[in-house]
Request: fold
Amino acid sequence: MQKRFVTIWFRYLKTDWLCRRHPELLHLPLVLTAQDHGRMIITAVNPPAQLQGIGVGMVLADARVIVPSLKYFYDIPGLPQKLLRSIAKWCMRFSPIAAIDEPDGIIIDATGCTHLWSGEASYVNSIVKRLKQFGYNVNSAIADTAGKAWAIAHFGNRETIIHNEGELNTFISLPVAALRLEVESIARLNKLGLRQIQDILSMPRSVLRRRFGNHLLMRLDQAMGRQEEVIQPVQPIEPYCERLTCLEPIVTATGIEIALKKLLEVLCERLKHEGKGIRKLSFKGYRVDGNIQAIDIGTNRASSNAHHLFKLFEIKISSIEPALGIELFTLEAFKVEDLDSTQEKFWDKACGLANPELVKLLDRVSNKIGVDSIHRFLPAEHHWPERSVKIAASLNENATTQWRTDLQRPIYLLQNPEPIWATALIPDYPPMLFRYQNKLHKVKKADGPERIEREWWIDEGQHRDYYAVEDEEGKRYWLFRSGHYSENYQWFIHGYFA
Reply:
């Protein structure tokens, strides 16, 4: 498939943005300024100011002599990068690969995308029309290399679509500045009479390299397609991503559901063939007004079941606001894992964590109340109670050690022990009374002590003497005394028994 690139040049990027925010300035001469060595220098102009002879680099005081009614505002550092990044993300509705071309352009890899708009002319015109509706003055071009498209957009005539046989002739007739060279190189070429690209094509490469360095040859080879030019997308492309362009903007929940089902069917079928399943998935809708609506889901185990995944999304579809309509839907799998191909017995159903119905239930609950609301715990190789339990990363993670069943341990262990007030008859005896959360508990039964030494290779501190106690209401608690009775000791509660 032949490569096709679209370059968009924003001729008045910053002033167009300002006029979008203040429409009353649209037809007035306007400039942006920045301080330089104590003087205010013009950094950007709008078309009315340019028509009256105001240009970038002029001193503001001189410009106001020429145009007394000149409006001026302070330039905002970093504004072009922020604007271009936002516009490039908006352009992703036309192609998944949209990159920033500083200081005032966007490059779109349109390979394989133009047929969705019934051809290149309709494709480019759709982009330009929308940007002009937003208030931006743009020049654009499409060609087989990004270098050619950039050159034609910046230095060619207003003809955006040039057929393949005319691209080369149009390109070589452009000035050498169209090769994106440094100012010094352009000045030296012009001084030698090499004013057009065709003037340097017939020259030996060794001469060009010796006089102008490798940068000129690199730019020339990139434009001619002899060297690939890598463009960095504003958003990395996910390897598992599907797109659905709408003929008409979608404004109903039913239409959104239909689009989601179609994308899920295509993506899940592709993953099944590769033996993979989805763990994290994002569904995005690109609205007509430039806003992006997104909902995300996650699964506890890799899944390629389109029906199950749709049920997880269905809970959140109501949060999507189509407004004037959604014109593009995308489905991106951020995390993909290999599917388990475990063999099941014909006469016995899978149970426990292997039960697919349990996994589906956990997925629905976690996506409804939050992924962090459900945890699975595994034993860890530690004597210290807080460290003896860890949270499993997934349902597939296996324990590296066995649960301790030879010692009493509470069903619910506090993340951090909480201090309590307690009294004991004599040292090494369990407490007779303890006060916790403003309630006095009288101990009826107790087991202990069980001494647990601190893990000195991790941290330092006092040992703990644990007691399992039961109060007069029959409730059982796990208490401990930190340190020896005669030292600076303190009582704590650390858990609850069933």
